[in-house]
Amino acid sequence: MSEAIYRYELPVDGDWHTLPLSGAVLHVDCRTADTVELWAYHSGGPELPRAFQVVGTGQPLPAGWKRHVGTCLSPDRQLVWHVVEQQP
Predict the structure, then answer these.
(1) Summary count for the chain: helices (H), strands (E)
(2) Confidence band (pLDDT; 50, 70, 90) for 88?
(3) Which of 21, 36, 55, 58 shows a CA-CA span of 20 to 30 A to 79?
(4) Is pLDDT above 80 for 48?
(5) 64 in helix, strand or coil?
(6) Cα–Cα distance between 65 and 81 in angstroms, integer?
(7) At a CB cut-off of 8 Å and minimum separation 6, what does 62 contact?
(8) Phi-psi category of 44—alpha, beta or left, where left has phi over 0 and alpha has psi -120 to 50?
(9) Under 8 Å between Cβ of 44 and 3
(10) Does residue 1 carry a pLDDT above 70?
């Protein structure tokens, strides 16, 4: 497999979502209020399962979160979403 950048969608639903990634998360953004998009680099190497969750500003961070990945505004700029990654 060659190097590439892929886009994924993460629902704003309070659940962890596992993605098979082989590289770093590059960017997060959103075009709808209920879905956050995540772009990740794929090195062509082995893919590892990594879990992400979308959290709103002022909401409790989920148990087991490890690090903040990115922040974006909803299209109407009324909501701010934060993507966090789960500890392996």
Answers:
(1) 0, 7
(2) confident
(3) 21
(4) yes
(5) coil
(6) 15
(7) 14, 16, 53, 55, 84, 86
(8) left
(9) yes
(10) no
